[in-house]
Amino acid sequence: MREAIIYAVAHADYAQRGAPLRISIFDDRLEVENPGLLPFALTLEDLRRGVSRLRNRVIGRVFHALGLVEQWGSGIQRTTAACREAGLAAPVYEQPATRFRVTITTTRVTRPVLNKTDEAILRSLAGARDGSRARSSR
Description:
The protein is α+β, with helices and mostly antiparallel strands. It has helices at residues 2-11, 44-48, 57-65, 75-85, 116-136, and strands at residues 22-25, 29-35, 92-94, 99-105. It starts with a helix and ends with a helix.
């Protein structure tokens, strides 16, 4: 979500007055949408390959200085990797009318990839749950 929202703010076409950024949360998906088509003749395939052309350079520099943007052109790959690690389908990128939209589904398609910290938390929660069951049966 973070990458999608940062992308929407940095790449929005602010010349389209009255056209807001939108974050829509549904039961089965999250949609992040900004005004403006892909800039400078970029295609959706270009994005997937890591090609990037920044529409709003000042916003981009500020986001980079704040550590919100690590490297230009890597956000799409990072978003896709994060979804896959969470067990979700790859995000869907589209350009309806004069807008750009990223849709992230919330339905798991595979098991999430867990690191050692995730596994330790789950073990602790399972242990706490088992302990509360034992106390309630007394």
